[in-house]
Amino acid sequence: MTRYTHARTASAVTALSLLLAFSPHAQAASDPDTPTLGADLDGLLDAGRHLNPSLQAAALETAAMDAEASAADALEDPTFRVNSDEVDRTSGPRLNKTYITVEQEFPLWGKRDLRRSVALAAVDAARGRERAVGLELEERIKGAYALYAAASAALAINGDVGHLDRQMARNAADRYAQGLGSQGDALTATAEAARTEVEAARLMADRTAAAARLNTLLARPADMPLAPPTGARPLPASTPPLPVLADRARADNPRLAAGLAEVRGAEEERRLAAKAWYPDLSLAVGAIQRDNGPTGYTATVGFRIPLQAEPKRAKERQAVAKANASRQSLAATAADIEGDLAEALAALNAARQQAGIYRAQLLPDLGGAHEAALAAYGRGQGSLAAVLEAEHRLHQARLDLLRIEVEGQKALAALERLVGGPL
């Protein structure tokens, strides 16, 4: 019983040491150059919005579309003409006259308004795509941070178990030296301590990989240091039902918003293509200079005659096909979003239920079984194999809980991307 008490005390001390080591305040106090980025999710999300090149590229594409839309309804450049001709006369010397004119074409029948509407729809679609890129980036950062926090927590758990395993190995060796235990128990305890060290190496690799993924999303070198995480955000106690989430997605999902804008723009392009059969107006004004006469003035009115029918029909067919394709694409996007919503909601609910069972029943039961096996071994009434088996099952259950919570975090991040914001 005394050895069991010492083991529990050492385990508690180790856990407290690990918690202090992973505390951001302790890190900052020990090293003034310790990074703060990575300690919490909000800081990573904010950094991603400012640093991720994909999001910056999407923002620049939106700016380009906006710049194009600002001049979509502008008139074409006017045409300046100089024409030299002779004065009509039947006799006498040849006299010259010069026409200096400026000609401007004016689209009629609402064509300029339609062009502007098409351009503004393209801007709205670009804004939707930019926001979608931002939400997808947030989802990836949330998932990577969940892995980073889970790996850090798993390392703390493994360190606690490793300390206890080493204590058990020393106890088994002492018992064997005193003739109270078997050599098999001593070797088994040593092997279990080595297995825990192997597990620690694997978990360290998992945390390094998660940190590299976070750095990549932030456009930083993969090996840049990150602050130890303070812990993953808790899963929500409840979530809205699927119909409510679907309504939010229809209202706020940026992919749907972009699709609606593309449909609107395609419809305006179809209307604009139909207007090609209507002629545009050209106006020209100018002055006439004569060699031996007064200056005169000239004015011209012209119309573009829509004689080439085939290009116009082809443009109309293209516009109709594009409008239909946009509508079909929007319907497919809406169906995909609804299916993804149902899948993510089911995954989140399952993770929340499993985590609740683990915390309320499984972990307490396994913890009690481990304590009982450890106490029996301390009194010389149990076997080392039973202690190690109980410890392994408890350790694995704690790691399984972390894995379940990561799956829940990923499902939550997917839901937030699909509905266009936090739940």
Automatic annotation (TrEMBL):
<keyword id="KW-0732">Signal</keyword>
<comment type="similarity">
    <text>Belongs to the outer membrane factor (OMF) (TC 1.B.17) family.</text>
</comment>
<dbReference type="InterPro" id="IPR003423">
    <property type="entry name" value="OMP_efflux"/>
</dbReference>
<protein>
    <submittedName>
        <fullName>Transporter</fullName>
    </submittedName>
</protein>
<dbReference type="Pfam" id="PF02321">
    <property type="entry name" value="OEP"/>
</dbReference>
<dbReference type="InterPro" id="IPR010131">
    <property type="entry name" value="MdtP/NodT-like"/>
</dbReference>
<feature type="signal peptide">
    <location>
        <begin position="1"/>
        <end position="28"/>
    </location>
</feature>
<dbReference type="GO" id="GO:0015562">
    <property type="term" value="F:efflux transmembrane transporter activity"/>
</dbReference>
